[in-house]
Amino acid sequence: MGYFGLASQLKLFDRLDQWMRRRIRMCYWKQWRRPKRRREMLIRLGVPRRQAIRHARSRQSYWHMSRTIASGVGLTNAWLAEQGLISMKTLWAQLAPLRGIA
User: Fold this and answer.
1) How far apart are CA 42 and CA 66, in angstroms?
2) Which of 38, 72, 85, 86 has the CB geometry, 3.0–4.6 Å to 80, for a possible disulfide?
3) How many whole angstroms separate alpha carbon 88 and alpha carbon 18?
4) Distance, CA of 23 to CA of 10 (rounded, Å)
5) Is 0.85 surpassed by the pTM of this model?
6) pLDDT in tens, 65-98
7) Distance (Å, rounded) from C-alpha 5 to C-alpha 101?
8) What is the CB neighbour count within 10 angstroms for residue 49?
9) Contact (CB, 8 A) for 68 and 55
């Protein structure tokens, strides 16, 4: 962030944040491995049971499943922040005084 913090392109950091969140969702999906575990975790995260079952049994790729409604409902941005994900956009905004723009 030290080097790129001087850039004045907020959209760049917004897109980077979106990509990182999707990548982390994909890693969680891959970590859960089995459909039973995926279903349990999605239900625990607040996804409706029927939708959790449908998504847990899907044979789509990890990357595709990271963009589904179920992963968006269960693995929300707030939940990812609780897990320790730091937003690049927030860090960029904190460096605004260094760039001379507010």
Assistant:
1) 12
2) 85
3) 10
4) 20
5) no
6) 999 988 889 999 999 999 999 998 888 778 777 6
7) 12
8) 10
9) yes
Any idea where the domains of the chain sit in the sequence? 31-96
SS3 readout for 43-102: HHCCCCHHHHHHHHCCCCCHHHHCCCHHHHHHCCHHHHHHCCCCCHHHHHHHCHHHHCCC
Tokens 């349990």, located at residue: 40
In angstroms, the CA 96 to CA 12 distance is: 15
The pLDDT of residue 100? 64
Per residue in 34-62, pLDDT (tens digit) is: 999 999 999 999 999 999 999 999 999 99
Query: Which secondary-structure segment (H or E) carries 48?
Result: none
Residue 8's pLDDT band (cuts 50, 70, 90): low
